[in-house]
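User: I'm writing a tutorial on reading structure tokens. Could you give me a worked example: one chain, its sequence, then its tokens, then a sentence or two explaining what the tokens reveal?
Assistant: Sure. Here is the example chain.
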Amino acid sequence: MSVTIENLSYIYDKKAVFKKNALFDVSLKVEDGDFFALVGRTGSGKSTLAMHLNGLIRKQTGVILIDDFDFDKKINLKALRAKVGIVFQYPESQLFADTVALDVGFGPKNLKLDPKEIDARVRDSIGAVGLDYDEIAGKSPFELSGGQMRRVAIAGVLAMKPEILVLDEPTAGLDPQGKKDIMELVSSLRSSLKAVIMISHNMDEVAKYCNKVALMDEGRLVGVFTPRQLFRDDTVERYGLLLPSAVSLAHKLKAAGVINDADILGEDELVAKILEAKNIK
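And here are its predicted structure tokens:
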């Protein structure tokens, strides 16, 4: 089991008059091999939950277990953050070093690793995100395109060799091709990770890439679903989200009598439904 959360609650500014209840009694499990999505409208508690996972927010009430880390005991935060890597929304804004190689190597250097090991990790991580080390290592991160900068930011997290990767809106602000490239990259990294956890408002990406989805609303867990279960009806719309584009179109075609049911996830399934309804082989 990669991640177990039981009855997790959290209050910001707990002693203040205007304290904010951010999480209420949240329980869920992320299994090894999962590409797990956290979805919900802004302010639903997704980021607060995610930041608990590598100790950026300290637990108040409930249970968090990540493999051999017990959050009820004193935790080695450096070791935890090497195991659980977080890529924040617009991670390129956190780039700061003079060169790409120095930026990617910052985390491993803080672990006080041998210089040869740091260099190997930097090379491996830059390659893992689809960039050419010889071409890019000596450049300033700020000379790069937006998509390249995001890849460098992800490489910096991968250089810590995490087992669990947490991504907060990984495609925010990118053009359609950039979004596709980043999601294909993340998908390609799954084999080297125990689990991927992604916060997203993009239901097309959730439908295509994720195998489980936790829907949150006002700090509470509505439920954990497969994408097919979640998008079968108007549940996400009732919680302020949009259906995936293909699913939304399928619902409209069903209402118009063009197809018999709207139980699809992507474009290929939708086309197959239309061909079936028209008796076209």
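What the tokens reveal: The mean pLDDT is 92. DSSP finds 13 helices and ten strands in the chain.
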